[in-house]
Amino acid sequence: MAVDVAQQRRDTETRLRALVREAEEMDAKIRAYLADRDNKPHPRHHEFIERIQNMRLDPEISNRYLETLLDNLQWKVYHLSRAWGQLWDNAEAARKRRSGHFRQAEGKGSENNRPDRSANDKRRIYSVDRLWAVQQEKLESLGENPDSEDRDAFVQRIKQRYGQLASEKKADEEIVMTFDRKSRRCTLAVKKHSKSSNG
Asked: Positive or negative, the Cα torsion across 15, 21, 26, 29?
């Protein structure tokens, strides 16, 4: 039984690492498609983002190491999805200008993109929702007021922190969530990649 759990953990780690590579490859697929829509396949990145953000570990095999790997994968995809959304919006705007529809759509062009963008935003914020829930549970368990921080302020703070850490972290480091007892807030921090997968 123990051997079986250890094997499942190894398989899960391999799958999570493969998904990290897939996320990096998705970036190239999106750029290729936007540059040549007639000859390149649609990257289907929305389905990929949703699949990653909805991923859960089997409680039977879950441990701290795998949870960290999954969290980091979800944060990576969350961060990439924002860049992809921007890339897509820019490409759409350029296409409209080229095709001459831009003048007709002026004045309501931003509304035209709105439904797609709000769907993207819902997907993008999924990970942040999860962190928000974690912070509230943590505060409740400490007997604090879980609404002591406004949700929008929380989202803004986490996004800024992630952007800052993502640009500073080294190759052997990863971004993890931590709870700062002093400020009574969930925050993000950088730590070295863990070597062990049995913890």
From this structure: negative
**Is residue 175 classed exposed, middle or buried when 0-12, 13-18 and 19+ CB atoms within 10 A define those classes?**
buried
Yes or no: say if 177 and 167 are a contact pair by the CB < 8 Å rule.
no
Q: What residue has token string 């974690």?
A: 134
User: How many separate helices (H) and strands (E) can be counted in the chain?
Assistant: 7, 2
Provide the residue-wise pLDDT of the chain in tens; the chain has 199 residues: 667 999 999 999 999 999 999 999 998 999 999 988 889 899 999 999 999 999 999 999 999 999 999 999 999 999 999 999 999 999 888 888 877 654 454 444 444 444 444 444 444 444 676 777 778 777 877 788 877 888 888 888 888 888 778 777 777 777 777 878 788 888 888 877 655 444 4
Helix (H/G/I), strand (E/B), else coil: 40: coil
**Residues 166, 172, 177, 180: what is their CA dihedral angle, to the nearest 10 degrees?**
-100
DSSP-derived secondary structure for 97-114? HHHTHHHHHTTTHHHHHH
Among 166, 162, 153, CA closest to 127: 162
Q: Could you tell me which of 113, 80, 95, 98 has the C-alpha nearest to residue 37?
A: 95
